[in-house]
Amino acid sequence: MLLPKRRKLQNPHILVAYFSRSGNTRRLAEVICRQTGGRLFEIQPQNSYPASYEKTVVQAREEIQKGFLPALLKQAEGFDQYKTVFIGSPNWWGTLAPPVASFLAGRAAAGKILVPFCTHGGSGGEEIGGEIARLCPQARVLSAFEAYGPRVKTGAVKKQLGKWLRRIGMVR
């Protein structure tokens, strides 16, 4: 007789917050959420980015150069209750997507563990962890996980993600 797969119990001390334009970062966030038992939260700007990739690239570049922090649709309720917050972002122009920077800016993150993860189009994670540390200087920032966007759907990336979560002590 086959037993149903055991579902990991929700961990009330872990938040998995992410912004995803194409769905790649969302996929990583969902896997992290399943493996850690954390609560999933999608960071959404009030004004969506253009459907066109090229137009989004231009807009993102301008926002990053100006240090623009877009207004968000909603905030994560009870942020203070989380001890560990995974922060997911696509790598845009070598840094966090503006909605993620907006989510972190001015947060009281003292004593929290922030865990960056990102997707990219070939440039790697670059300064994602450093930018998070700059925005939240009183938090402890762990080493980031990065994945090439088009490969996120593969079993190899999920396996690498599991190894990373074990290495940083988030799962057994």
Q: Radius of gyration, rounded?
A: 16 Å
Please indicate the percent range of residues in DSSP E strands (runs of 2 or more).
Answer: 15-25%
Q: Major beta sheet, specifics? A: 6 strands, parallel
Low-confidence stretches: 1-7
- Helix share of residues? 25-40%
How many strands appear in the DSSP assignment?
6
Number of helices: 5
Overview of this structure, please?
Helices cover 32% and strands 17% of the residues. With 172 residues, it is α/β, with parallel strands linked by helices. Strands 1, 2, 3, 4, 5 and 6 form a 6-stranded parallel beta sheet that branches. The longest helix has 14 residues. The N terminus is likely disordered.
Relevant terms:
single chain, about 170 residues, alpha/beta, 5 helices, about 30% helix, globular
Q: Could you write a compact summary of the structure shown?
A:
The chain is α/β, with parallel strands linked by helices and 172 residues long. 32% of the residues lie in helices and 17% in strands.
SSE diagram, text form:
Elements: E1 14-18, H1 24-36, E2 39-42, H2 53-66, E3 84-90, H3 98-104, E4 113-120, H4 128-135, E5 140-141, E6 145-148, H5 155-167
Parallel strand pairs: 1-2, 1-3, 3-4, 4-5, 4-6
